[in-house]
Amino acid sequence: MDPCPFVRLSVGNLGLRIPVAAKPARSVVHPSSSPCFCKIKLKGFPVQTAVVPFVPSENSFPDNQLQTMVASFHLSKTDLDKLAVKSIFSAKIFLKISIYTGRRGTTCGVNSGKLLGKVSVPLDLAGTESKACMFHNGWISVGKEAKGSSSQFHLNVKAEPDPRFVFQFDGEPECSPQVFQIQGQYQATRFYLQVQSLQSEASSARSWLSSFGSERERPGKERKGWSITVHDLSGSPVAAASMVTPFVASPGSDRVSRSNPGSWLILRPGDGTWKPWGRLEAWRERGASDGLGYRFELIPDSAAAGIVLSESTLSSNKGGKFCIDLGANSTNGRATPANSASPACSPRNSGDFGYGLWPYCMYRGFVMSARVEGEGKCSKPNVEVSVQHVNCTEDAAAFVALAAAIDLSMDACRLFSQRLRKELCQQQDLLG
Prior knowledge:
Immunoglobulin-like, twelve-stranded antiparallel sheet, four-stranded antiparallel sheet, 2 domains
């Protein structure tokens, strides 16, 4: 399998030194008690926000400190080509950072933070698909104070090759599509899916999908029995996803609640049987977000408990990206509506590597992402998997199965008062 070139542009090791006036004044910022944050912008990508820790003026920033990444941008070959064109016919490409004092958020539509200063780091991304490049590592003066007493902002900006395998479903998961691998301008069939729905365990002889065709669900209000199998080109099963906990409406409602989520078990073949690799839980969030909440955890062979790799929310209307990225605690890539949460067993701060806390976890940095469409929309997931996490066909197939499961969870968590998509109703006729 040939990967596609990607570049990861990362920002880390943030720090801020602010001169403290000899006499207290209302206009003076006291950084030890005032929170600071910054907004990081790269043209064509969503703005990312990160907390900026205060560094006392008497302390220097240690050069050998563990890299603490706070934001990253994932650039495909198409993104790199577009940025290269812009740099030729217009001004150079810059990473722009605005530093603020005060708390993040807005009040009556106005940003609550006070702008301290701005920093621009020029970028020359030519050749970064094959070679790492450091664009800045050190202090930069910011603010409008007198010379010699201005505030200083520390940051590290670098680009590194991050090649990925890219897979594209040629149809919706429930239609048992083929899965192509994208290789530059070409695509080749790599897997195909088989999606099945099993008979309900209830006494009714009808298929468990039979109630989906009506506006009113049967009293049990449950969806269960979904099964996904990924086959290679020889027809051998190389990964699977099985719905092990039904998606059940909470009492008195039409939604799957966070307190009682449905779940999938992602399986891989081994020793003549299926072995659990990961668990995906999903539910319907309440409130303004009204989205698909999810949690994915790895199930190591020697660990008593799973390791949470990703937990976040996808818009039920617009969809979004399901992402496992263990290198930064912010939004990654393009058009991601929900932040990818930090792993539950890692530090929840700007230094979000924390690998020493993961005795059983083999995954680091960007792991995978999958694009999921919103409810009622045709969804043909696009899956990206980091090359460093694929050693065999089964590795790639497990991520494809996971992508199919998160996509089908959008349907499983749909309100029980609503009809499912016609494709699922048609499948009922075939399987009932």
